[in-house]
Amino acid sequence: MCQAERQTTIQELDDHLETDLHLETDLEGQSVTAPASPTSPTPSRRQSHKVRTERALQQAALELFSHHGFDATTTDDVAARAGVSPRTFFRYFATKDSVLFAGAHAWVRTLSDQLLAQPAQLSEVDALRESLLVLVPSVVPGRRSYVLFERAVASSPALRGRVHDQSQIDIGRLSEAIAQRRGAERPDPASRLLATIVLTTYRRALDLWLADTEGADLRAAISYEFDLLLAEFPSGERMAL
Are residues 88 and 140 in the same domain? Predict the structure, then answer.
């Protein structure tokens, strides 16, 4: 890669650096923005460079994995596309697939925090729906990356397995928050079932949003899927949810 191409790659990340410094991403289709507080220290030049390099590697991986397939792409290819050395890749990511799952814990952690902040008078399903809707503004800007991620995952059985494993971790973490909201010390099977249903419902909403190339509205997709879910329960049973 020539110097001009490398500079262009890094510049693409520079354009959004101010927000990216406070961005943690789950490339499975979930992204969480943590806005800087007024008292947050200004990032140092070294920190800014580190963030730019990490983002460049992630974007390069998404582009290459989605267009050429995960298995056919090497870490050297990713490093070259990002304009860094092969050794630099492994300073940031331990394995080839980990570049796609950096910060994978952040989204469900923030969702759990939002759930625990919801008014106690809301039913659990309504509280979870509201929590998901709160996170929509942080998800929408990354739509193109989510599309590329889905293509990359579709190209590789290994990645599909990794996504499944991450989903099970997310279910476990969300079930802990549900149990905490209920005043329980640990999740029971019912908490895990509810977490599974809610995350599956959200996954369906994401699929609708990503498939809609014109006028895509994630909020509307989430509301639609939750309305379908609640419509399956008589009013009396719905109150229990």
Answer: no
Number of domains in the chain: 2
Q: How does pLDDT run across 172-226, given as a tens digit for each residue? A: 999 999 999 999 999 999 999 999 999 999 999 999 999 987 777 999 999 999 9
Specify the 3-state DSSP secondary structure of 130. helix
Domain of residue 42, residue span: 3-100
DSSP string over 158-226: HHHHHHHHHHHHHHHHHHHHHHHHTT-SS--HHHHHHHHHHHHHHHHHHHHHHH--SS--HHHHHHHHH
- Among 233, 126, 120, CA closest to 181: 120
100, 122, 149 - which closes a domain: 100
Q: Which residue has the tokens 């490339």?
A: 27
pTM for the model: 0.77
Q: In this structure, are 96 and 199 located in the same domain?
A: no
Q: What is the pLDDT of residues 27-39, one digit of tens each?
A: 443 433 333 334 4
DSSP β-bridge partners for residue 18: none
Extract the tokens encoding 53: 């390099």
Closest CA to 20 of 60, 48, 61: 48
Residues 195 and 221 placed together within one structural domain of the fold: yes
Residue 109 maps to which CATH number? 1.10.357.10
